Structure to design on (201 residues):
């Protein structure tokens, strides 16, 4: 556990990340391990199918999260990154893909896809990644927070907005522990988001 006032403790946590965490934009070597996210599975996926088609644009994110680096956030917040490890693509692209996969997996929408897929769109799901990191300002935990806005594509009006957030204790600060915790938190966020969308369309 890292206390806010324990500067040496914070240095120990950062040392566990590889003895030289990357600052944004300073990575010079290709990562030796790439990590992905799993799509959520809704236990209540059975039910009446909707005739709606939903477009999922690329999520917005601060530059600190708009990269393939796996973020570690101390109090401040101060962003650092795991060396020699990365997401399989830029984080917004990974999140976008998993939202699409989760919604498609419900089997209750006529169509879900990316811009350019040729859908006859009824709704757009506009999202913003606000947190997607291992927090080390207390008990180490994966934190995922995504703001979502469902927009009627025919008239441009917002149907509903919601912020989805989940935290999962990681049990440590290794990259494998961080990714496992982030996958668990993301699974909860994607599942809650899909259930919310199915209630609105």
């Amino acid at each position: 556990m890292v206390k806010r006032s324990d500067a040496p403790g914070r240095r120990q946590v950062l040392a566990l990340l590889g003895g030289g965490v990357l600052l944004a934009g300073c990575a010079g070597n290709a990562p030796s391990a790439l990590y992905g996210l799993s799509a959520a599975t809704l236990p209540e996926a059975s039910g009446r199918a909707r005739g709606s088609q939903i477009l999922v644009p690329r999520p917005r994110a601060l530059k600190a999260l708009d990269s393939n680096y796996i973020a570690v956030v101390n109090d401040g917040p101060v962003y650092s990154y795991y060396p020699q490890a990365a997401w399989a693509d830029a984080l917004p692209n990974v999140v976008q893909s998993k939202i699409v996969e989760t919604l498609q997996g419900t089997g209750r929408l006529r169509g879900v896809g990316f811009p350019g897929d040729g859908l006859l769109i009824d709704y757009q799901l506009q999202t913003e990644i606000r947190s997607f990191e291992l927090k080390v300002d207390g008990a180490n935990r994966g934190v995922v927070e995504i703001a979502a806005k469902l927009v009627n594509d025919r008239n441009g009006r917002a149907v509903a907005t919601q912020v989805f957030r989940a935290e999962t204790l990681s049990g440590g600060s290794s990259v494998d522990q961080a990714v496992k915790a982030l996958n668990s938190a993301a699974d909860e966020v994607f599942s809650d988001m899909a259930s919310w969308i199915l209630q609105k369309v």
About this structure: Confidence is low (pLDDT under 50) at residues 1-27.
